[in-house]
Design goal:
This protein is an alpha+beta fold and 111 residues long. The chain contains one helix and six strands. The protein has one domain. It has a six-stranded antiparallel β-sheet, covered by helices on one side.
Length: 111
């Protein structure tokens, strides 16, 4: 299996991390994460936090919305998509809507 890791900067405080494994010509599994920087007031350092995560864990593509502590707040199934379709769609969806996703994440986390 071939594993690839790709980092896609969106702006100075947001990025996409893509990890996938290819087996033959198929996407065996994948993770696409939107991250944003948050200030950790205890240690006074900026840290990357997951805003949302698309992955193929549990045997089907789905999206997890996260809180600033890394807990899932919502799970949306995309079990009608192949891993290849979900990988492509998730990257495009994040690129086109990341500002709204981050704004919602910050609003829902009190920052």
């Amino acid at each position: 299996m071939i594993k690839k890791v790709i980092k896609i900067p969106l702006d100075k405080d947001s990025r996409i991390i893509v990890v996938f494994q290819r087996e033959r010509n198929e996407i065996a599994n994948f993770v696409v994460v939107l991250e944003t920087k948050l200030m950790d007031l205890e240690v006074k350092l900026e840290e990357w936090r997951q805003v949302l995560r698309f992955d193929s864990a549990h045997g089907y593509p789905h999206m997890d919305k996260m809180d600033k502590h890394g807990n899932k707040t919502e799970v949306i199934k995309f079990d009608y998509l192949t891993n290849k379709e979900a990988l492509t769609i998730s990257i495009d969806l994040i690129k086109n809507n990341y500002k709204d996703f981050v704004k919602s994440f910050l609003r829902n986390n009190g920052d």
